[in-house]
Amino acid sequence: MSQYNIQSIIGLAGVSEDECEKARLVGRNFEVPMLLVAIWIVVVWYAELEGVFPRSYAYFTDLAVWLFFITETVVLTYLVNDKLRYLRSNWINLVIIFMGVPVIWGISSYAGILRSLRLLLLAAILVNLSDTIRQVLSRNHLGITLAIALMIIMLSGILIAGIDPNINSVWEGLWWAWVTVTTVGYGDVVPVSVPGKLFGAILILFGLGIFSLLTANFSAFFISKEEQEAKEIEKETLKKLNTIEQRINDLERSINKFINK
């Protein structure tokens, strides 16, 4: 089963590669704003729980993120050729849109739905970006690989400190995120809430992927250095052979001239 089919089943397939070029280009252009939205969700969520931002500010943030998802869904549905396939393979977007209706009306009794909506938003954004991240990490860019891993750990630490009552500070959250991403799992700091456990499960999967890619990138880095050295030696050898061949040709011409005399 291909990766696109798996993402279609979970409703996060994005724009298919066999769609028109314009739809794929616009889909890629949504990736950077989606990453910024994911970071902003984490920051605002934690700030709201810590009392830094008033609830009204978080409300408008949730509304803006929800409208962003509506915009993306409407625009891409309009651009793709097979609209039914796009909606069917991205059904989670429709779930997010319908779950966000209580946000518009500010219904306080839907606080649990709102928390679930935020987790869905984060999961949708991260999965939609996973192809791009995987392509970047697989190109032997160690600096970018480490930067992305560090960013995921920091955002995860901030988020878990806000959504789980058993994690009392950002520093505890960062420690938990570090041992979770590295799949060490000391067990000294663990989430106890359902959202915290769900987020932890998602982070473990990302950790497995990130560190397998890190291992592959380190291996590719050292192999590429050896290959580069081998290419330099080969290039120098070819240069010497060309020089020898040129001298032999010059010598043959000189001999032929001497014989012809």
What does this structure look like?
The protein has 261 residues and is mainly alpha-helical. It is built from eleven helices and no strands. Helix 3 runs parallel beside helix 9 (142-163) and helix 5 crosses helix 6. It is elongated.
The coarse overall form would be elongated
Task: Tell me about the largest β-sheet.
Answer: none
| Average of the residue pLDDT scores | 74
- Overall structural class, as computed from helix and strand content, comes to mainly alpha
Low-confidence stretches: none
> Topology as H/E string?
HHHHHHHHHHH
Ends apart, CA distance between termini: 77 Å
Total strands? 0
Radius of gyration over C-alpha positions, nearest whole angstrom: 27 Å
Strand fraction band? under 5%
| Helix fraction by DSSP (H/I, runs of at least 4) | over 70%
**Whole-number tally of structural domains:** 2
- Helix run count: 11
Features:
80% helix, 2 domains, 11 helices, Helix Hairpins, single chain, mainly alpha
Summarize the SSE layout with pairings:
Blueprint: H1 3-9, H2 21-29, H3 31-49, H4 55-79, H5 83-89, H6 91-99, H7 101-105, H8 111-137, H9 142-163, H10 170-181, H11 194-260
Helix pairs in contact: 3-4, 3-8, 3-9, 4-5, 4-6, 5-6, 6-8, 8-11, 9-10, 9-11
